[in-house]
Amino acid sequence: MALGIVAVTFFFLWKQSRPEPVRYEILTSETRTISRSSVATGQIRPRRSVSVKPRITGILSTIDVKVGQEVKTGDVIARVSVIPDMNSYNEALSAVESASLHLKEARRAFERTESLYKEGVVPREEYEKASHALALAKEDENRAKSSLDIILHGSSSRSGAVNTTIVRATMSGKVIDLPLKTGASVVSTSPYSEGTTIATIADVTDMIFDGKIDETEVDMLSVGLPARITVGSSLDRRITGTLEEISAMGVKENGTVMFSVKASIDSDSGTTELRAGYSANAEFITAEARDVVCVEEAAIAFEDGGTYVYKLVSPEGAEQKFERVKVVTGLSDGLYVEIKEGVAPGAVLRGNKMN
């Protein structure tokens, strides 16, 4: 009895001292399509858009359109009430008075010359010169009065249908933004000012992706690459496009150099309008392998200067035994690796070690 107890004890201790067999996760090779891609972040924008600005400084008196409204070139967008600048008004008023005085003097000179010409005292050349001076003086007065009218009213009789107080659309499209409200002060465009934007009009039938990509990935891109675009408002929306433009110079942002990229939008499966300003990601397919044998990255072992996988050779349920097989790999997408040689579809392979 005592000997039996001793034997059992020694067997238990011997078994406990033996290391447990290492077990591995089992993976299977399969046929699939894999691709490598680079992702840019950005926004959906219209390819063509314009900012409509006033041609005169004043107060926005009316806004004649709404956001989302379709307009054509020349349609009235808004109206501006003129508030004369006192310096400009004083200068224009002085110009009118000066021109009027000059006209009176030119008229008197012409009348004297005309009288002398009729009496045969002065030659025809002097008469024509006085007549020309009178015509110029009249034109100067009309021009000065017209300038004063424009400062006071935004238009003049000389300008005809041209009225700087009326703001018109400069392209056909949809109004996508009206940043101001009635009563706001507006400034005209000049060499010293960009002017105040009253409305933004865009062609929303032609949208593009406008984004940025990290300098570490920009060299993998080339114009013409296909793109899969995902908008933040609908992750299920499927949009395809084509890379059209890559910036030649990067800009440093938060310590990272970023390059601008633009892609066309070729098709959109969305049932709602694709709106300008949507945040979006564009995935550019830089390489693709279709219907190839693939294994998960965990199955690949880099040993002795080569690339291998371990194929399971032991029966199911028995202690795992593997055979090392040399393989030739191809494209990797970070999860799966293409196997060009060495493994057929359906092969049972060793994966990560299990705890």
Descriptive keywords:
single chain, 6-stranded antiparallel beta barrel, 4-stranded antiparallel beta sheet, 4 helices, Elongation Factor Tu (Ef-tu), domain 3, alpha+beta, conserved putative lor/sdh protein from methanococcus maripaludis s2 fold, rod-shaped, OB fold (Dihydrolipoamide Acetyltransferase, E2P)
Q: In a nutshell, what does this entry contain?
A:
It contains four helices and 22 strands. The chain has 355 residues and is α+β, with helices and mostly antiparallel strands. The protein is rod-shaped, with a radius of gyration of 41 Å.
Question: How confident overall, as mean pLDDT?
Answer: 83
- Give me the CATH fold name of the largest domain: Elongation Factor Tu (Ef-tu), domain 3
- Range of helix content: 10-25%
Instruction: Kindly provide the name of the CATH class of the largest domain.
Output: Mainly Beta
How many β-strands, per DSSP?
A: 22
Radius of gyration: 41 Å
The profile of the biggest β sheet is: 6 strands, antiparallel, barrel
Which superfamily, in CATH terms, is the homologous superfamily of the largest domain? Answer: Efflux pump adaptor protein, beta barrel domain
Which architecture of the largest domain does the CATH hierarchy give at level 2? Beta Barrel
Q: What string, H for helix and E for strand, traces the elements in order?
A: HEEEEEEHHEEEEEHEEEEEEEEEEE
Derived structural class: alpha+beta
